[in-house]
Design goal:
single chain, Cytochrome Bc1 Complex, Chain D, domain 2, binds heme C
């Protein structure tokens, strides 16, 4: 075989290898870089409230971000939106000062805490009875989440907060109410799981419908002004 033919053969096989190789190394390198940048952003802007390992044990009050239930319910895009918008009238500020690349990076950093992909299912239609939902909320949720849904006790999230509701679907709320968030005070509510509350699927839908349709109009952060949780503007 002529020398140039051999070189051509060698060259083309290299080309083929390069083209076929999806280059996981390069991809994981980019991911790695993003996590490193994300850690920097997190340390500068988030650690005071959400704690070093995302457990929500910062000096101030933030919820748990390393939580496997939380991470299995919210996509990267969802988390991006929450960081960008924040939650108005709570301690969670909006971070529109950050570049898109920095928010992406901090999302990768948070996603890196995910160890499990829990299979959490919600009914395909979440539609319930507001009156019954109110009754159940007052029995099972009000002690922590408050009369106006602003989260009266430390760390019980402001569930009727209008920006929370914009950035959390009924399905994501249903899943959180049903399965809870492990290792936080938010225990599961679905009958059959190991929670103090034992609610039927439809009852959970009733509560969610009440929060989204009625309680939201009464959201009042002044209710939790004695906790460090909500900011009264
Ligand atoms: C001053 C305190 C504070 C700082 C700083 C802060 N957070 Fe928060 N964050 C909170 C609080 C409080 C909540 C819960 C608000 C609520 O729903 O009542 C929260 C909620 C969140 C949520 C939603 C979690 C859930 O369970 O729905 C995400 C995601 C989040 N923060 C990410 C971040 C990131 C990323 C940063 C840094 C770029 C950050 N936060 C900085 C206080 C803070
Ligand atoms: C014992 C206190 C307690 C009770 C009772 C309770 N919760 Fe919670 N809930 C919490 C805490 C604490 C969190 C934040 C957990 C975290 O760190 O992620 C939370 C978070 C949530 C969230 C997620 C909010 C967000 O912004 O991510 C939803 C939805 C929720 N609770 C719904 C309910 C419903 C519905 C009920 C009643 C059926 C209920 N909770 C009862 C303590 C409680």
């Amino acid at each position: 075989m002529k020398k140039w033919l051999i070189s051509l053969a060698v060259f083309s096989s290299i080309v083929v290898i390069v083209l076929l190789d999806p280059s996981p190394d390069r991809e994981s390198q980019a991911e790695e870089n993003s996590i490193v940048l994300g850690e920097k952003v997190y340390t500068e802007f988030c650690v005071d409230c959400h704690g070093e390992n995302g457990k929500g044990e910062g000096a101030q009050i933030g919820t748990a971000l390393n939580n496997q239930h939380f991470l299995s319910t919210f996509s990267n895009q969802d988390i991006y939106k929450i960081i960008e918008d924040g939650k108005k009238q709570t301690l969670m500020p909006g971070f529109d000062v950050l570049e898109a690349e920095e928010i992406d990076a901090v999302v990768s950093f948070i996603r890196n805490w995910q160890k499990d992909r829990l299979d959490l299912e919600a009914p395909s239609v979440i539609e319930g009875n507001v009156t019954n939902g109110k009754k159940l909320y007052n029995l099972y949720c009000i002690t922590c989440h408050g009369e106006t849904g602003s989260g009266t006790l430390t760390k019980a999230a402001a569930i009727a907060n209008p920006t929370t509701l914009e950035n959390m679907t009924a399905e994501q709320m249903w899943i959180t109410a049903a399965y809870g968030r492990e290792e936080t005070r938010m225990g599961p509510s679905l009958k059959g799981l190991e929670g103090v509350r034992q609610l039927e699927e439809q009852e959970i839908s009733d509560v969610i419908t009440y929060i989204r349709r009625d309680l939201v109009d009464r959201y009042n952060p002044a209710e939790s002004k004695h906790s460090t949780h909500a900011i009264v503007e």
